[in-house]
Design brief:
- With about 160 residues, this protein is mainly α.
- It has one domain.
- The longest helix has 28 residues.
- The radius of gyration is 16 Å and the shape is elongated.
Length: about 160
Amino acid sequence: MMQRSVSLLRPSLNTVTRLFLISALSTVGLVASDASHLMRRSTWNLSNAAYAQASAPQVSQYARAAFYIEQQRQQDYAEAKKIMSGNVPEDVCRQQNIPSAVQDICGRFLKRSAEIIKENGLTISQFNDITRRKEGDPNLQQQIQSELLKLQKTTP
């Protein structure tokens, strides 16, 4: 079984880029927990073109989830940074020798990310499917980026 992990990337990237990265990276552990279910559905998904297209509401839900996950990541990163005296490895949650308090932050972040996804009207499978699809679909990437920009403008 794959180890669940979340990357608390350094906050030097611009916000939109970080949002895309966190949406992809935060799902690593979520994909692992749902991998067998996704594998069973993969053949059906490939043959169902309607399913392969994210609806406008799903794109909006996905963007909101990614946005709020990023906010949580920033809070958790700041907390881990304090605990580790500012020396947070790039893939801190994959590290073996990190303080137990940071391990707790990683576990809490993963759990909270799953909650955020569900609170925004998506299943973890739907979120993961959109994450994978956006990598090869410039149109979907643009739709998500547009939604993220709207959220940035309306959220303090």
